[in-house]
Amino acid sequence: MAYDFWPGAGGMVKSWEKEPGSPVSEADIAVDGFLRRELGKLLPAAGWLSEETADAPERLEKGLIWLVDPVDGTRDFIRGRGGWAVSVALISEGRPLIGLLDAPARGEHWLGLAGQGAWRNGVRLSASERREFPGARVPADNLAKVDRILQPVDKPNSIALRIAMVAADEADLVATLRWGFEWDIGAATLIAREAGATTTDAFGCTLAYNKRDPRAFGLLVSSPGIHGAAVAHLAERAAAIAGKENP
Predict the structure, then answer these.
(1) Pairing relation of β-strands 173-181 and 215-222?
(2) Which of 17, 119, 126, 178 sits between 20 and 30 A of 162, alpha carbons compared?
(3) Does residue 217 form part of some domain?
(4) What is the pTM of this model?
(5) Calpha distance 60→47 (Å, rounded)
(6) Radius of gyration of the chain (CA)
(7) Residues 179 and 98 in one domain
(8) What is the pLDDT of residues 178-221, one digit of tens each?
(9) Other C-beta atoms within 10 Å of 186: how many?
């Protein structure tokens, strides 16, 4: 459905800013409505948490919720670039049970099933097994001086697709040092974990979902062999930024 709006395929899409620096398009809204309707038919008792729907506190009482980002990577979407995806996760008691990413502009369909594995276009995924932190591949446009021991690779706008790159052994590390939302990462972190990656927040702590406040500070997804080194590399900055930006 989102593909029909995508300028890269000749679609026309209206976009605006929800707040400065936070774009949204009519595709986000249309896909959100479609998924809520169709997934609601599939599991009527499940709760709902989405970037484009007002939060409903009754979701906290649900054992199951759908966690949705209807278009992750909206900037790439409205510019006609391919680095966007539809992200859907089914959360059970605070943990992802199913994770789906649909990236039609890239011809990619990703699936993760808790305890069973992860696949892209039906091919089973095996995450990066890198053990040396220097030289690790990281999706980035530019690297800060302190990070130039790492190797930048192509960076899609979608954080979910960047996480999936670790699952597919196309990157060794994805890290953020900012407050983010559950819907950005729920599906992709399950896919990465099921492919063999380690997934935590920026401090190396376990990620949890369907929290009262659906935010966490930072994200760290990597090869298990470099995860400890990555936590140490980011620790000072993570502590400083989290303290300063704590909402």
Answers:
(1) antiparallel
(2) 17
(3) yes
(4) 0.95
(5) 8
(6) 17
(7) no
(8) 999 999 999 999 999 999 999 999 999 999 999 999 998 999 99
(9) 29
